[in-house]
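Hi there,

I know you've been waiting on this one. I reran it after we fixed the sequence typo, so this is the corrected version. Both the input and the resulting structure follow.
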Amino acid sequence: MTSALTFALNPIKHSFRQLDRLGAWSADLPLRLFLAWEFFESGLEKWNGENWFEQIQGAFPFPFDQLPASLNWQLSMWIELIAPVLLLLGLGTRLATLALIVVTLVAIAAVHWPAHWSSLTELAMGYAITDKGFGNYKLPLIYLVAALPLLFRGAGHLSLDALLRRKA
């Protein structure tokens, strides 16, 4: 019975080893593609849209609340346009990811965090995609969680970062 079970599990073990090899080369690629798409799309909206940061300037955390709204708009837009391209290429991935994390944290503080909450239950109600009076920080939190592996591990083997490291 044990040898039959071992024989049956060998193809599964082999498959997992193959997945491990594939993952070593490409596990970070879906995160890079996902984040690049989402942030670039946001940057394009800013590029084609009106500056609405003036309406929320007071909600920005320090030091961004000290900057003019037009500068915050430009910083946010250019980071959301350039950093995603860097993520796609896997070039300067950790720096690009860090910049996107900062933009996301500022967005959570200024736009997505509930303005008023008095209990953890009320705060938890803000863990939503749409704002029903309790904030809507779910999506930016998903972006933050997706960005952490790129910040901690970099872009992986399928990247210009890895190619440059191999050449150096």
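Quick highlight: The helical segments are 2-26, 29-48, 69-89, 93-112, 120-125, 138-153, 160-167.

Best,
R. S.
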